[in-house]
Amino acid sequence: MIPKALTIAGSDSGGGAGIQADLKTFQELNVFGMSAITALTAQNTRGVQGVFPASNECVRQQLDSIAEDLKPQAIKTGMLYRSSIIQTVAEKIKTYGWSNVVVDPVMIAKGGASLLQKEAIETLKTNLIPLSTVITPNIPEAEVLTGMKIKSNADRKQAAEMLLVLGCRSVVIKGGHHEDNLEAIDLFFDGNDFVWLRGQRIQTRNTHGTGCTFSAAITAELAKGENVLNAIRTAKSFIQAAIEHELNIGSGHGPTNHWAFQTYRMGRP
Ligand SMILES: Nc1ncnc2c1ncn2[C@@H]1O[C@H](COP(=O)(O)OP(=O)(O)O)[C@@H](O)[C@H]1O
Ligand SMILES: Cc1ncc(COP(=O)(O)OP(=O)(O)O)c(N)n1
Questions:
Q1: Residue 239: CB within 6 Å of ligand 1?
Q2: What family, per the record (predicted)?
Q3: Does a structural domain hold residue 181?
């Protein structure tokens, strides 16, 4: 059986984040990728120049078309932009009984553009997060979702506990935005165990789409039947290789190298 994964996210015309990063990642991990597009963005390595959200009907029809013919073994959500799109996605996840749901609570692009309306944060918390197998906030997103400041390791553990109360089955709070200069360390928590996933911090500005790529790699591994922690370990290795072997494309924050994991590194850390 060919594993199939679905991404429900925004399109990045520059190819480094969003739907484009997700499909490249699925492909590199030998998973057949499908997509439902929630918004078009005019975007490049310098930033986001325009956001054009899809109608609810457009999102609904894409999800129905996929579900009626192609059964994804795992799905991920990225940029969902507004409350009504989140509601549509949550309804469809329930209707079609989709499992292995990875929620990347995308809020703000690196350049500062808003990819989620403020009023949609509550809908994300109440409608979508309770349906998720794992959520993958970065530190600023975890701060918004919990209402607490995250500075120390103890803070991050407390935030992970608070996020689990929202109803997700597990959480990984990514460490890309942490001030640690030597390592980029992510924290996994499933209600029982805290696991720190360590990687050398690469000094580069070419980190556009790191979060999308990381959550897509988790989704691909879940589609193949891996457990959540193993999926996250492989994703960490995938993103580490993708940042380390940079491409230097564009004049701003360049994309990561989606070929690198296959080319340079196959194992988990
Ligand atoms: N400079 C870096 N060097 C190595 N790993 C990084 C670097 N920046 C981010 N990462 C890793 O990339 C993944 C995405 O993290 P992060 O940048 O926090 O997410 P987002 O793109 O959602 O803001 C995490 O596994 C994080 O540890
Ligand atoms: C269409 C779209 N979706 C998501 C993002 C954010 O991607 P992320 O992986 O968090 O990377 P940065 O944008 O922060 O570099 C996006 N930019 N566009």
A1: yes
A2: Belongs to the ThiD family.
A3: no
> Range of 126's domain?
4-135+203-265
Burial class of residue 119 (count of CB atoms within 10 Å of its CB; 0-12, 13-18, 19+) = exposed
In angstroms, the Cα distances linking 205 to 111, 137, 174, 185 are: 12, 20, 17, 18
Alpha carbon of 208 to ligand 1 centroid (Å): 9
Residue 207 belongs to domain with CATH number: 3.40.1190.20
Number of domains in the chain: 1
In this predicted complex, what is the ipTM? 0.98
pTM metric for this prediction: 0.97
Q: Is residue 222 part of a domain?
A: yes
Split at pLDDT 50, 70, 90, the class of 110 is confident
Q: Is 234 a catalytic residue?
A: no
Residue 76 lies in a domain: yes
Residue 58 annotated as catalytic? no
Q: Among 43, 108, 115, which is best to mutate for testing ligand 2, by the most ligand atoms less than 8 A from CB?
A: 115
Tens-place pLDDT, residues 151-191: 999 999 999 999 999 999 999 999 999 988 899 999 999 99
Domain membership of residue 224 (yes or no) is yes
